[in-house]
Write a structure and sequence with these properties.
CATH topology of the largest domain: BirA Bifunctional Protein, domain 2
Distance between the termini: 79 Å
Low-confidence stretches: none
CATH superfamily of the largest domain: Bira Bifunctional Protein, Domain 2
CATH architecture of the largest domain: 2-Layer Sandwich
Number of strands: 9
Strand content: 15-25%
Order of helices and strands: HHHHHHEEHEHEEHEEEHEHHH
Structural class: alpha+beta
CATH class of the largest domain: Alpha Beta
Number of helices: 13
Mean pLDDT: 91
Number of domains: 2
Shape: elongated
Helix content: 40-55%
Bound molecules: adenosine-5'-[phenylalaninyl-phosphate]
Length: 338
């Protein structure tokens, strides 16, 4: 059979194919190992030498034409199938749309952002410091030398190379005072870590926000009024607070500030350990030794500082009676906050 006849027959078969499966079969029958076009090449060996060149050329031409026709037919069939499917699809325009599922803010983030806004409005800057600290910043510079009993107050996670997962946000006091020329006021929120037993009001990983005000003269009265403004604004209601003397080696005098429990209204519940009060923050006037460690002359500069627990604020603000819900990561719980 001549090359022209085989080619014409192949092209006719391709044009008549109506499915991709049929095309696949044709591809084997024409261009496969024993396909009609491939078989043509056997004629070259028996042809007179003078005809072999033109014959080879004709066979190559036939092969290229068939391959091209095969691809063209395949594209046409695919496009046809898509067009048919689109033409056949019926849309029900009355069906309700699917609303995209969006995430929600974590309640700790909501409270943190709120606190940042409150402090920015009072002229504070917001700073961010390290979660992994060295012994100097977390303890030593805060007037907590090695073997000081106060180190037991904050059971510590140590890294294998001798660093500590910060046990409070107070190391930021040293970093802030060392990097910003006084006078200044700043807050620095962040995660802190303690190796302690978990219960309804204690987590091993929780958030604090530290406040620091450095000036030539600062007062406890100013500290207390700042705390009042902060707590009533973040809670969006009047809150009752009380100050008790509290021991923190890095402040003198030092205070614990408690908020009347908003879960039980002061009557007593498991969050406030049935006392009616929730320990909310520690505060005081920054100890002269700490100012010295931070490179400031205590004869010239004074400072107050406080460190507040954000999870407990979240619990009070949203009426959550167990801190484990706050950091538990249960989406059913978290999706309630916007
Ligand atoms: C401190 O961490 C001091 N650095 C605070 C401070 C700063 C004092 C500046 C003076 C000057 P304390 O360990 O009490 O203090 O923690 C502060 C607050 O963090 C507590 O009042 C409480 O609200 C919260 N907190 C403490 N431990 C936990 C815990 N395990 N889980 C959740 N919140 C906690």
């Amino acid at each position: 059979m001549s090359v022209e006849i085989v080619q014409a027959d192949a092209l006719a078969q391709l044009a008549a194919a109506t499915s991709e499966a049929a095309l696949r079969e044709l591809e084997v029958a024409l261009l496969g190992k024993k396909g009609a076009i491939t078989e043509l090449t056997k004629m070259i060996a028996t042809a007179p030498p003078a005809e072999r060149g033109p014959l080879g050329k004709a066979i190559n031409g036939a092969k290229a034409a068939v391959t091209q026709a095969l691809e063209a037919r395949r594209s046409a069939l695919v496009e046809g199938a898509i067009a048919a499917e689109l033409a056949d699809r019926r849309f029900d325009v009355t069906l309700p749309g699917r609303s995209p599922s969006t995430g929600s803010y974590h309640p700790v983030s909501l409270v943190q952002e709120r606190l940042e806004d409150i402090f920015v409005a009072m002229g504070f800057r917001v700073l961010d410091f390290y979660e992994v600290e060295d012994d100097f910043h977390n303890f030593e510079a805060l007037n907590i030398p090695k073997n000081h009993p106060a180190r037991d107050m904050q059971d510590t996670f140590w890294t294998t190379d001798g660093l500590v997962m910060r046990t409070h946000t107070s190391p930021g006091q040293i970093r802030a005072m060392r990097s910003i020329a006084p006078p200044f006021r700043a807050v620095f929120p962040g995660k802190v870590f303690r190796n302690e037993a978990i219960d309804a009001s204690h987590e091993h990983t929780f958030h604090q926000l530290e406040g620091l005000m450095v000036d030539r003269e600062v007062s406890v009265a100013n500290l207390i009024s700042t705390l009042r403004i902060m707590l009533s604004q973040v809670m969006e209601r009047e809150v009752t607070i009380r100050l008790r003397p509290g021991y923190f080696p890095f402040v003198e005098p030092g205070f614990e500030c408690d908020m009347q429990c908003l879960i039980c209204g002061g009557g007593g519940c498991r969050v406030c350990k049935h006392s009616g009060w929730v320990e909310t923050l520690g505060c005081g006037l920054v100890h002269p030794n700490v100012l010295r460690h931070a490179g400031l002359n205590p004869e010239e500069w004074q400072a107050w500082a406080f460190g507040i627990g954000l999870s407990r604020l979240v619990m009070m603000r949203y009426g959550i009676d167990d801190i484990r819900h706050v950091m538990g990561g249960d989406l059913r719980f978290l999706q309630q906050f916007v």
